[in-house]
Every structure is written in structure tokens, then in C-alpha cells.
Amino acid sequence: MNYAKNILETIGNTPLIKINKLAEDLPCLVLSKYETFNPGNSVKDRMALKMIEDAEADGRLKPGGTIIEGTSGNTGMGLALAAIVKGYKCVFVLSDKQSKEKMDILKAVGAEVVVCPTEVEPDDPRSYYSVSKRLAEETENSWYVNQYDNPSNAIAHYESTGPEIWEQTEGKVTHFVVGVGTGGTISGVGKYLKEQNPDVKVWGIDTYGSVFKKYHETGIFDEKEIYPYVTEGIGEDILPKNVNFDIIDGFTKVTDKDAAVYTQLLAKEEGMFLGNSAGAAMKGTLQLKDHFTKDDVVVILFHDHGSRYVGKMFNDEWMKKMGYIE
User: What sign has the CA pseudo-torsion 307, 310, 316, 320?
Assistant: First the structure.
């Protein structure tokens, strides 16, 4: 009989799916690495399990312990599923810009959720970075995950996502495009693909209000670039250790409006019910049109599922209120 011993054994081996209508203006084949097929509906399941297994192996996470993390929602979901199977408690700290659906989903799988204000500096004691660190210090037998700087994050994608893309394209992939938040996906996948073929180009999708693009191009961390933005799951006001800028060939920035509109278009034109960062990645790929030729195979990674955004990008009243649609 063919069955998984638990839900964690279903992580990975997600399909590659062709983008049709939305890629009509591009000269190349455009394929999406469709990560919503993971059991927690996002790419983050991969690194969540890897970070837990590595912490168990070296004793940072002990039996009966509490897993504490600052998350935009998806890493929390991956960690929660693994915690259920392995017998840990979870406390997740989110910023108040994250969708209500994300918070409700984390509570549904038994996690405790703490909400912090978005519009404070990273080192402010109220920020979700600071609160998650403080809770880890105060909670007995706890482990602070720190996905931003935890090397197991990028290693997970080097070991699984990268090899899958290489095998599924039979080594024909020429460009990899993905939204950048913690940096684990772009750095792990990019490292693997460039080891197989140094000519593969790796493009990061950034958002306005984030520091990545300017830092990559100039080496300057410009605080004037930082301001609040709506797009969820990509961009940062810090430089996570998991972002390996040497592997990234370039960034393109996508507006909040374009990311939201293309999130809807993926559902309505491709039947792909995906998250906000997928809309950003799709629009960013279209912005990179001049970098592609007819022989290229472009792989875009789509992070998560549309169910997390029903109250926002898939709600026309919200879209009108934000000025994104007429």
C-alpha cells in the first residue's frame, strides 16, 4: 500500500505548471513552481521542517519544548504542522498588517498568536522581531527559530526545491524568479541551480518600501528606502543573513497595486488561486521581459495559497478602498 506515515512526508515534490495567458507577451516558456501543493499550502513547509529537524539534532529544541517565531504566517503554518506531529507547543508573533485569515489559520492548528504593530522600527521593543526574541528569553524550554538568520532555511531549498526544479526542467531552466523575504528560497535554489549551470540567472522580486534592490546595486543600506507597504511576505527593512546577494543577478520592484491586481489575474486568467507574493512575482517576471529570449525556460516560484487573502486581494471592496481597481 502506498501512503504517507504522517502529513510531513507529503512536503515537497510540487508540480511545475505552465503560465499561459499571462505570459503571452513573453518570448519564452514560463513555468511556475507551484508550492501551494505542500500540506501547509506554502513553500515554507520545506524550511520549517528542516529547521526543526536540525534544532532537534543539535539539542536546541528539546522534547516538550515551545517553538517561538516571528512570521508573516506561512512559516508559522509549516512549523505548526511539524510541531503537531512531533509534540511541541507553538507561539507565533505576527505584524498587524498580516491578513486575518493567516492569524485564524494559525490558531486553527493550535498555535498561540501574538500581534504587534507594523509601523515601528525593527529594534523597537514592540516590533515583531523584538517581541519574538523577548518571548523566547522568557519562556522555559523554548527555541527561537529566527528564520531570517537560520542557515537551515536556505539549506532546505538547496537540498529539495533546487534539485526538483533542475530535474523537472531536465536541466533546461535558464532563469529563476522569486519574491525575496527571508532570502532562504532564492539563496538555496539559486546556489543549487548555479552549481549545475553557472549561466542560470537568478532574479529577486522586491517591493517598494524594502531595502533589497538598492542594497544589491550599491551596497548601501538606505533607511530612506524603508516605509510601510501592503504586499505580504516579500521585502524587508533588515538584511537577513539568509539573503546571499552574490547569488542574485538582480532585483525588480513591484508596486503594491500591481501585486494585488496580478494576484487576482492569476486566479481569473490561469485558474491559479495563489497568494499576494505570486501576483508580485508574475508582474515582476513581465517587467523582466527584455532579459528573455525564445529559447529560455523561466521558472517562477509561487509561495502560498489564495485562502490567506480572501479578505484582502480577493475582496473587491478592499481592492476599491485601496484604489487598486475602479
Answer: negative
Q: Are the beta carbons of 133 and 140 closer than 8 angstroms?
A: no
Residue 161 CB neighbour total at 10 angstroms:
26
Distance from C-alpha of 99 to C-alpha of 71, rounded to nearest angstrom: 12
Is 18 catalytic? The answer is no
Three-state SS annotation for 104-139: HHHHHCCCEEEEECCCCCCCCCCCHHHHHHHHHHHC
Q: Give yes or no for residue 99 having a pLDDT over 90.
A: no
SS3 content of the chain, % helix, strand, coil (to 5): 40, 15, 40
Nearest to 116, CA basis, from 101, 132, 105: 132
- The catalytic position among 18, 21, 33, 44 is 44
Distance CA 49, CA 56 (A): 11
Scanning 7-64, the segments in alpha helix (DSSP H) are: 44-57
For residue 272, which of 326, 230, 309 has the smallest C-alpha distance?
Answer: 309
82, 58 Cβ separation under 8 angstroms: no
Distance CA 8, CA 45 (A): 9
Bridge partners of 113, per DSSP, are: 92
Any idea which residue has 509601523 for its cell? 119
Strand partners, 252: 205
**Looking at the predicted structure, is the pLDDT value of residue 122 above 90?**
no
Give residues with Cβ within 8 angstroms of 62, minimum separation 6: 141, 143
Among the listed ranges 30-34, 72-76, 189-193, 247-251, which one has the minimum average pLDDT value? 72-76
What residue type is assigned to position 167 of the chain? E
Alpha helices in 227-312 (DSSP H): 256-270, 276-287
* 1: pLDDT strictly greater than 90: yes
- Residue 120 pLDDT > 90, yes or no? no
Average pLDDT over the chain reads 96
Q: What is the pTM of this model?
A: 0.95
Q: Are 67 and 145 in contact (CB under 8 A)?
A: yes
Q: What pLDDT was estimated at residue 97?
A: 84
